[in-house]
TrEMBL record:
Domain of life per record: Bacteria
Keyword field contains Membrane: yes
Membrane spanning stretches: 40-58, 70-88, 100-120, 181-200, 207-226
Protein name: Uncharacterized protein
Keywords recorded for this protein, A-Z: Membrane, Transmembrane, Transmembrane helix
Length: 327
């Protein structure tokens, strides 16, 4: 039990502890002691920022052995944090130390140049901007940005587009049950945007603008969900089933990997780690049991092995009949 809890909270601690150390060091730069000794405070803040990020990278890396470029990147990030986050007197003292500034600049330039070369090689090999950008920025951040960009493009464009169904595949819809429920949330979101803006604007206009932007983003996200569920149906090909839930889930399952169709699944079972539940806001009516677990990578890069796949179709009977003919 203790080992399980430790494994669960260790990733959060790896991120939280360095962040708290940097925040504490930043607050210390605003103290009277730092104001009296700004050069010493600047060097200490620079050391703490770089050291905290470096230790986090070491703790997170496989076998605690990050590559040289990763270490160079954490030191470069520490230099940037120390320059931007320090109190004004401490920052001015840091920038007055010419040798330190040159060392920080060379570190940042070295990391940026090395990463740019790696990104270019990755793009030439994969033709993927996302993978190339992951050579420079954290992979999870790039993945999140790519997902959000895709959702916003989907919300703003592709009005009236037909479902994306490649040749040689059959499409099975699942949006007729889900989209009416999301439409209700969208109406409530629009009402909330107006009410919150009217109330908060009397207290703070900047806060109202921030909440308005978040509300508009939420509304666009719901629109993208609705459009994605319609445009990306579940596909059945001659040799595979592609399980999709808009842009949230996209998994290609070889038919040879499917052992059988199960008649039902309980809510408790859908919550298990070995079950991929692609039925959004509804209960599955199609359950695939696999011969052996296959890996599935989620939106933000977390991979798990799944032994069953559950999803909901508007009309499951034609899909079940067509799949059973291939099993």
């Amino acid at each position: 039990m203790k080992a399980s809890l430790s494994a669960r909270f260790a990733p959060a601690a790896i991120l939280l502890v360095p962040l708290l150390a940097i925040i504490a060091a930043r607050l210390a730069t605003h103290s009277d002691l730092a104001a009296r000794h700004p050069r010493t405070a600047a060097l200490l803040f620079l050391w703490i920022a770089a050291d905290a990020l470096t230790l986090a990278a070491i703790a997170k890396a496989p076998k605690h052995r990050p590559g040289l470029r990763v270490l160079l990147g954490t030191i470069a990030a520490g230099c940037i944090v120390a320059t931007l986050a320090a109190a004004s007197p401490v920052r001015e003292a840091l920038l007055d130390m010419r040798s330190v500034v040159i060392a920080m600049a060379l570190t940042v330039i070295a990391y940026a140049g090395w990463s740019a070369i790696e990104a270019w090689h990755t793009y030439r090999r994969t033709r993927s901007f996302e993978k190339a950008a992951s050579e420079v920025l954290p992979a999870k951040l790039v993945r999140f940005a790519a997902f959000e960009s895709g959702m916003m493009r989907l919300a703003l464009f592709k009005w009236g587009a037909k479902p994306l169904v490649p040749a040689g595949t059959q499409a099975f819809a699942y949006h007729r049950v889900i989209n009416p429920m999301i439409a209700v949330f969208l109406v409530l979101q629009m009402i909330e945007i107006v009410v919150v803006d009217l109330l908060v604007s009397h207290w703070s206009r900047p806060a109202a603008i921030v909440l308005l932007a978040l509300g508009i983003w939420g509304a666009l996200f719901l629109i993208a969900l609705m459009k994605g569920f319609r445009l990306y149906p579940i596909l059945l090909g001659r040799e595979f089933v592609r399980v999709r839930a808009g842009l949230l889930i996209n998994l290609r399952v070889p038919i040879d990997a499917i052992e059988a169709l199960e008649p039902s699944i309980t809510k408790a079972e859908t919550d298990r780690a070995e079950v991929l539940n692609a039925a959004i806001l509804s209960h599955p009516n199609v359950i695939l049991r696999l011969r052996s677990p296959i890996p599935h990578t989620g939106l933000f890069g977390k991979t798990r092995n799944i032994g069953r796949i559950a999803f909901r179709l508007d009309q499951p009977a034609p899909f079940i009949e067509a799949l059973e003919a291939r099993l």
